[in-house]
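Curious: why these numbers?
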Amino acid sequence: MTLPPQTTSARPTGVHATARITATSVGEATAVPVLAGDGPFDVRWNHPCGNQARVCIIGAMSAPLGGDRLRIEATAGRGAHLHITTATATIALRGPTPDHATYDVHLTVAEQASLHWLPEPLISAARSNLRQSCTIDLAPTARLVLREEQVLGRTGEPPGRLSTRLTLRYDGHLLLDQQTSYGPDAPAWDGPAIMAGHRATGQILIVDPAYDQQPPGVRLLGDDPAHGQAVLTPLAGPAVLITALAPDTLRLRHLLDAAHPLV
């Protein structure tokens, strides 16, 4: 008997997935009526803390890989208070296609609402290629605490290609728009103007209307540049940006945690 020829499906070119989180105010509490994710996003509700709803994003598969198109959309409605974190670090890896991956985060915070976006670090593994962005839209009375951390390469390996962009709009006006590229083909990324030989970088962005009246002053933290340093800088609006460089994630988190209580 002659068997029919076997057919094989085309090699996948990447995963397209979106996680959606929406928080709303319900009396003295915050509810999360929208909590959905697919692909690598397993979105879990955690126990609340006071009137703050807490959500954790768990990685259900290896991502982002080359060709992946990933997106997270989180909204804190009027008067809602939302805290989002991830269970583990996110590792950008080389995928089945040489195409770059994208990882886009969109955060929206309405009047009298607050959002804490505190994911674990992003690790750019060797030969990966990722374009990461975070876009934030805040109402005039909204509050935000955002932490981002990037690690360039796992232990003993060089980093992949990584491009990051952070865009903040406050009351419809652009308050911050910064972009940085690391790894192969990125000019001078390892020089004194960007990483200065370090392999971990991160920042905390805090937006609070109270800074209109009492903005903090510029401050440098860390006595030895070889062990990392952080700088606290007020922005041209009710916001503060803390930026840190360090040789590893442990030192980076220590610097960011030391700077945060100062504001």
Remarks:
- DSSP finds one helix and 18 strands in the chain.
- The chain has a mean pLDDT of 92.
- The two ends are 78 Å apart (CA to CA).
